[in-house]
Design goal:
This protein has 98 residues and is of the alpha+beta class. 40% of the residues lie in helices and 28% in strands. The protein folds into two domains: 7-46, HU Protein, Chain A (Irregular), CATH 4.10.520; 47-98, Irregular (HU Protein, Chain A), CATH 4.10.520.
Length: 98
């Protein structure tokens, strides 16, 4: 089974250039600014909600016992924060319910 293609930041910028007739520098800046805004909000402990698309949140994972797959040895995995994305209703209906 082949790996699916992935949409990159460059692809997003190219779509903006084509759809909105932006020059490359402006399209790149728009994509970068959008992503940096999401990152800044998450770092500040805020969630990001894009109505109809989905929401980004940080979740705290507690410490746990894990296993080294090579040696089978038990190891302590420290607590950490992880990014989480939840699909919005509109996006879910377009992707899953069709």
């Amino acid at each position: 089974m082949e790996a699916p293609e992935t949409l990159t930041k460059a692809d997003l910028a190219r779509h903006l250039m084509e759809r909105l007739e932006f020059v490359k520098a402006d399209a790149d800046l728009l994509v970068q600014t959008f992503l940096q805004s999401i990152i800044a909000s998450l770092r500040a402990g805020e969630g990001v909600e894009l109505r109809g698309f989905g929401s980004f949140r940080l979740r705290d994972r507690r410490a746990r016992m894990g296993r080294n797959p090579r040696s089978g040895e038990s190891i302590q995995v420290p607590p950490k924060r992880v990014a989480y994305f939840k699909l919005g209703k509109e996006l879910r209906s377009k992707l899953i319910d069709e």
